[in-house]
């Protein structure tokens, strides 16, 4: 599901970029059309300066009449551009077409952006739901396995959970909080198994292979882990390579010859523990 969401989001990013590019191009074409319309309506035209009350008072009637005659002669010599109106209509139609193209590109961009944001929210909601469920179950598993410890998962960046990662910290019984990288071998094993069991609770896997997970554990912790696998994971099968007899004692299936564990690959006995029996 996560991969599908990532793929869809990448596709939407591409569509959003394309629509933004189309919108910018439409704006450029609209600006060019506007300039052409202005030039077609009055090419090279300049507005005369307006007269003020003071300049009007200073004019003589003869001067005014003379200027009127001059203006009339200039008007008669003018050749109006009769194609300007048709050009105006053409440019107006082109302008309206560009406006519609811009509106369509903007609407498509907004649609893609909304779909993209919806997928981002869905990914975040599903991730946080799983993260919180696994975090609560991790506390329960670690407390049960260690008989009193505590564990937690913490987002490095709570505002953007996908940018930095997750910190896994534990507090073994009668000790302070530590990052998992600073634990001893046995403590790391118990912490890792607690996380595996929490993940199994959230999204079960039918089959697990584990190689000497109890090598760094004492007798008490081996028994705790073995009993948990035996009693609490009946919807999965665990195949475990182990050297510890108290792990074999709880196995549903053991490879024995004359009452002795059969040696697999030299001195590696094979034990199979789990609630899901195979025919």
From TrEMBL:
One of its GO terms (molecular function) is ATP binding. It comes from the Eukaryota. Residues 107-253 form the RecF/RecN/SMC N-terminal domain. InterPro entries: P-loop_NTPase, RecF/RecN/SMC_N. The keyword rRNA-binding does not apply. Its main location: nucleus. Residues 1-24 are annotated as: Disordered. The keyword Cell division applies. Residues 85-122 form a coiled coil. SUPFAM superfamilies: P-loop containing nucleoside triphosphate hydrolases. One of its GO terms (biological process) is cell division. This is Structural maintenance of chromosomes protein 4. Keywords: ATP-binding, Cell cycle, Cell division, Coiled coil, DNA condensation, Mitosis, Nucleotide-binding, Nucleus. It is found in: Nucleus. GO terms for cellular component: condensin complex; nucleus. Belongs to the SMC family. SMC4 subfamily. It holds the Pfam family SMC_N.
